[in-house]
Design brief:
The protein has helices at residues 2-6, 9-39, 44-72, 75-99, 106-136, 141-169, 172-179, 182-191, 206-220, 222-238, 240-244, 246-252, 258-281, 289-308, 312-340, 346-350, 352-362, 364-374, 376-397, 399-403. With 420 residues, it is mainly α. It has a single domain (2-192, 207-407), classed as Up-down Bundle (Growth Hormone, Chain: A). The longest helix is centred in the N-terminal third of the chain and has 31 residues, at 9-39. The chain is globular. The two termini are 17 Å apart.
Length: 420
């Protein structure tokens, strides 16, 4: 049951930290978008795409390294270093947005710092995820994953209208500075963790060798490969439109104000919130590959309606669907992989998830350039239909994905020393 995971002290600290990070992360990204729209009104689509690409490029380059870090070093210490680094980098970004020291050239420095922040995140994410089995044990792993998603998505619908309101009342630099207060909570909680989880990767191979072994392992396991392929199709084709360019779409196509955007975006957050609770109380669905197939294809269908709709109520409904299907995909994918993967490969395989997130962000650059040249309506529609084709193809061609979880959860033993 869900309270089984909550019985672990370290998990409660990680859970609160995940919720705080999930509250400030969308606030920071959307505030940067609003700042770019105000500072570069005639080139905002292109620069927003570059912002997403800087984040995506960093995730692509460092997520596999982050997974290797998680499999080679003490994960609790890696997390602490990552959070201290995040505070320093985000403080520099806030200062940059407040002072705009280089005028029109400030965007270049903002992209560099955003790249650095995302690189640090690419190490933090697989380390945090790979730590979960050591904290709660395999029997509470499914409930732990769903509770983490609940904590993240509980804050998401609250953050979106708040960021719209704050940016309508004060400058982007001021709003971004306020988000730094989150680390007043995060760093002490990470420092208070007691669990011990040292990655068991073969250090004789070196970092590059560890990464190659992880990729080979993921490719050779049919279930893990099917999960990765399905998530890749959704993240790298379907997400760059509604996710990265969503604020621009709402302003230019739907003609919404910043405050109205916050409430529209809240429907996405509500979808993620409902999905989180659904999978928390229907945990059996989170272990099945068929669920993953349905949520990825469902995301594509919602994206198609989103791209063709000019009705605010219809857009709100499918925006809810996008959020629901996104969380359903990520909860199911993470649960299936965590149960199937060997512990010594855990960090490197889980590092593929931020890698795909990075691919989604990196795609924002060509997508935004295409959108600037040919218009957002054509761009969003093309991406949506391609997403449907890609996700359907994965479902048809990966029978092992459809069969995953039908035999029940895989029991992977955890050493007693790793338990709390």
């Amino acid at each position: 049951m869900a309270r089984g995971a909550l019985a672990h002290r370290d998990f409660r600290l990680l859970l609160i930290g995940s919720g705080v990070v999930s509250f400030v992360a969308p606030m920071q990204f959307i505030t940067q978008i609003f700042w770019i729209q105000d500072a570069y009104p005639h080139r905002d689509v292109f620069f927003v795409g570059l912002l997403g690409a800087s984040r995506g490029g960093a995730m692509l380059l460092f997520s596999l390294i982050g997974g290797a870090f998680a499999d080679r070093f003490e994960r609790r210490k890696v997390l602490l270093v990552c959070e201290c680094t995040a505070l320093c980098i985000n403080a520099l970004i806030a200062l940059l947005m407040l002072t705009n020291p280089l005028g029109d050239a400030t965007i270049a420095l903002l992209l560099v710092l955003t790249f650095a922040a995302a690189s640090n995140m690419a190490i933090d994410i697989p380390t945090r995820t790979a730590s979960t089995p050591a904290v709660v044990g395999m029997e509470d792993l499914t409930s732990a994953i769903t509770l983490q998603m609940v904590a993240q998505q509980l804050t998401f619908p609250l953050a979106l209208p708040l960021v719209g309101f704050l940016n309508s009342q004060m400058s982007g630099g001021t709003v971004y500075s306020l988000t730094l207060l989150a680390w007043v909570l995060i760093i002490p909680m990470i420092a208070a963790l007691r669990f011990r989880s040292v990655g068991s990767a073969d250090r004789r191979q070196g970092m590059v060798g560890n990464i190659r072994s992880g990729l080979s392992y993921a490719r050779s396991d049919a279930t893990i490969f099917g999960v990765v392929a399905a998530v890749f199709a959704m993240q790298c084709i379907g997400m760059p439109g509604p996710s990265t360019l969503g604020p621009v779409w709402m302003r230019d196509v739907m003609e919404l104000s910043k405050a109205q955007f916050g409430f529209m975006a809240m429907t996405w957050g509500l979808g993620t919130f409902v999905a989180s609770f659904f999978f928390a109380f229907r945990r059996a669905f989170a272990t099945r590959g068929l669920t993953l197939c349905l949520t990825t294809v469902g995301f594509a269908v919602c994206a198609i309606v989103f791209a063709h709709s000019r009705s605010i109520p219809v857009t709100a409904v499918v925006n809810f669907g996008l959020g629901f299907c996104l969380v359903g995909t990520m909860v199911t994918a993470s649960t299936i992989v965590q149960q199937a993967v060997k512990d010594e490969m855990r960090g490197r395989v889980l590092g593929l998830f931020p890698l795909m997130m990075g691919g989604s962000m990196l795609m924002a650059a060509p997508v935004s350039a295409f959108g600037q040249a040919f218009g957002l309506p054509l761009t969003f529609a093309l991406l949506a239909w391609l997403t449907l084709a890609a996700t359907t193809s994965v479902v048809i061609r990966q029978p092992s994905l459809r069969r995953a979880g039908t035999g029940g959860p895989i029991a992977v033993p955890v050493p007693a020393a790793a338990r709390e």
